[in-house]
Design goal:
With 537 residues, the chain is α/β, with parallel strands linked by helices. The protein is 24% helix and 34% strand. Strands 14, 15, 16, 17, 18, 19, 20, 21 and 22 form a nine-stranded parallel β-sheet that branches. Strands 1-9-6-11-4-3 form a six-stranded antiparallel β-sheet. Helix 6 (282-300) runs parallel beside helix 8 and helix 11 (423-436) packs parallel to helix 12.
Amino acid sequence: QCLAEPPRPQYGGGIVRNPEFNDGLKGWSVFGYGQIAERTSDTGNRFLATDRRSLPHQSMSQKVYLQRGMLYTFSAWLQVDQGNTTVTAIFKTAKDGFVHVGAVEARSGCWSMLKGGLTAKTSGPAEFYFQCENTSVEIRVDSVSLQPFTKDQWRAHQAESISKVRKKTVAIKAVDANGHALPGASVSIQQKRSGFPFGCAIANTILENSAYQSWFTSRFTVTTFENEMKWYANEQEKGKEQYADADAMLAFAKQHGIAVRGHNVVWNDPQDVQSWVKSLPTQQLREAVNRRFNSVMKRYRGRVIAWDVVNENVHFSYYESQLGQNASSVFYQQAHQLDRNALMFLNDYNTLEAPVDVNVTAEKYLRRLWQIQSFGNLPRMAIGLEGHFDTPDISYMRSALDKLAGAKVPIWLTEVDVGHANQAKDLEDILTEAYSHPAVQGIVIWGAWHPQGCWRMCLTDNNFKNLPTGDVVDKLIFEWRSDNVAATTDADGLHRAELFHGEYKITIKHPSSNSSSMLNLTVDSASQNHNVLRVMV
């Protein structure tokens, strides 16, 4: 979205002084020994601009005081005087160094919103400024906002959002054979299955381990195979395909009603491309990739719910370098033709995890998505966010999800793990933030079990007793389910219940009858609030 004039600042600017520059330069300073100037548009809008930049960090700045543990949302509207280029917002802090909080592709002639966030690790003074590697452009800024939230306020918003987007109110009316209401009927509601896809990766180690199988199937409704469906696992040597493990794992998942994501058809990181593939001349490479698509997708179409078609193709471009700049677009078009029902994911890392990785900001992820979508009719595209976190910044994570939600395609977190000692707490924060966001439609944890240890994060020990991370998973599964309901209809024969999305078994009995009525009900986002379900007893 690029607007002719910037809107008013969010939260009235929050703690930013003079956020719309109505008081000239009051509260603002020069950063990096550059020059800044107040400007006014033809319509009378005031904004701030840099003048004669020679270094990327030379811009306007403002000093603020950050409080430890507070979550801050940051936003600003940006414009440049020529072309388009990336502008990043950075906080210079006394103790935590330079903290990237967000980036935007600023354009000339219109205003684009930079949306970001940070969680303060320490209390102390800080100074935010804007950085652009292209020193030939003038940076223009308006409607700046920095709004603090306490952890309790943040959690309250999460809880409110979960109630709004993950639950529905169902009204059940008990009636007799003549359609008359039956007050005092007993109503039992039991949730049989969650409606939100929540899962974990598995490896072939699950095939011969009954304890692993029991632990896994009692918790999850979706999975991704860690390696067993990747090209380098299926065709390590040219022409020698091997699908035995993937076949067996898919059969296991089907037996237990667990959905499977296809991961992945090809990988754009050259480090994960087989040496024999790299050695092929251009035409033979094109033919090999075509055989790969036809082999794996025809084998498993109708049996997987999604495909990571070209893995990590925001960061990497191996196939573009070999087959032309539209290589990924061609691959996604082919994938849509081969499996007309599955979702087709971009899948990449650091969009949520690392604001410092400017190669895969939400803005650049969306640009890649739109580039692929523009190539042809691709109606089932989806966004996959791997989620390999070190220390998460939940405020930044929300800002990135908000930005990506503008694409109006399904968003999944596809490979969530945490790579440091404070895994359990951070994992709970990440999963709760994702689950509470309206645009997120599924979560898969990257915790496939191996006796020698998991890739970065395990949920259990080798006896399948929960580690603290596993306890977090169980806690959230419990919190995201509806309690069993035992109630009685009111004077109008009605009972209303707020239920999480999912599949339910409902049983209704009345003292005047020896019989009972039983039905299965699916509650989902398409259900209408307060629709009355009439049940004859």
